[in-house]
Amino acid sequence: MNYVAPEITIEAFHCPFCGTYAHMDWAWLVNRQAITKYLEATCSRCRKASLWLAYDTKNVHGNLKPNSGEMVYPDFGTAPLPEVDMPEDVVRDYCEAARIFSKSPRGAAALLRLGLQKLCRHLGEEGVNINEDIRSLAAKNTIPPLVVKVADTVRITGNNAVHPGEMCDDDFDHIASKMFELLNFVVKKGISEPRELEALYSMVPEGARKKAEIRDEKAKLSARG
Q1: Which residues pair with residue 34 across a beta bridge?
Q2: Long-range contacts of 195-203, Cβ-Cβ distance < 8 Å, separation of 24 or more
Q3: Which of 11, 46, 144, 164 lies at a CB distance of 3.0 to 4.6 Å from 18, suitable for a disulfide?
Q4: Can you give the pLDDT at residue 157?
């Protein structure tokens, strides 16, 4: 399913701890029998609790409900968790972008672009020109060709690529939010799925593997001829 970002006004979202879409049990924190401005949202899956600060509230049938607020713990913002196979140096940029996203979408977008450059390098590209690298990866079928259009749409490649000072922060908010998902998708298609397929292939008996490799080689020679 699509990623549902944590939000103080909804009952279920993707947990910032375990990454699972789950129901959240909300509870106000109390200090000396007085309700504070803080709430806990406990994940029904992993039972870990995030801490939230409510900005304003409303009374609904005698129950205090938050109108708006922000997550203050964990200090990861509302971005999806990075894919488990994401390279370590890319994870650092990704997590830093997640921590500052709500305060500086412009800074988050810059960090995510840097992370994408590093990711392209891990996938065999030069890691200098994102525009060329993404198109090269698509041409090699490392990632689906549609990723090129997505990258163009969020203005990180092509003629509409983002340049500092040319866009308002609202635009960067949209760009950065989509780039989190884009990086995870590229990791999934370029690293995770090939690794899973290789592991599956290694489980096939050696004799069957050799026969398949011989058939593949004959097919290639036939296609060339």
Answers
A1: 31
A2: 195/85
A3: 46
A4: 53
* pLDDT at position 164: 46
CA separation for the pair 120, 38 (Å, rounded): 41
Element (H, E) at 169: helix 169-187
- Name beta bridge partners: 21: 14
Nearest to 46, CA basis, from 10, 80, 17: 17
CA distance 11 to 41: 9
Sequence-ordered list of residues with C-beta below 8 angstroms from that of 15, at least 6 positions apart, any chain? 6, 21, 22, 24, 43, 45, 46, 48, 50
Hey, what amino acid is at 154?
V
Measured in degrees and rounded to the nearest 5, phi and psi for residue 71 equal -80, 125
Residue 191 has pLDDT above 90, yes or no: yes
- The per-residue pLDDT for range 4-51, each reduced to its tens digit, is 989 998 999 999 999 999 999 999 999 988 899 999 999 999 999 999
Mean pLDDT of 152-180: 63
> What is the length of the chain?
225
Nearest partner of 48 among 71, 79, 82, judged by Cα: 71
User: Cα–Cα distances in Å, from 27 out to 24, 46, 58, 66, 170?
Assistant: 10, 16, 15, 11, 32
Residues 6+ apart with CB under 8 A from 40: 26, 27, 29, 49, 50, 51, 52
Is pLDDT of 186 > 60? yes
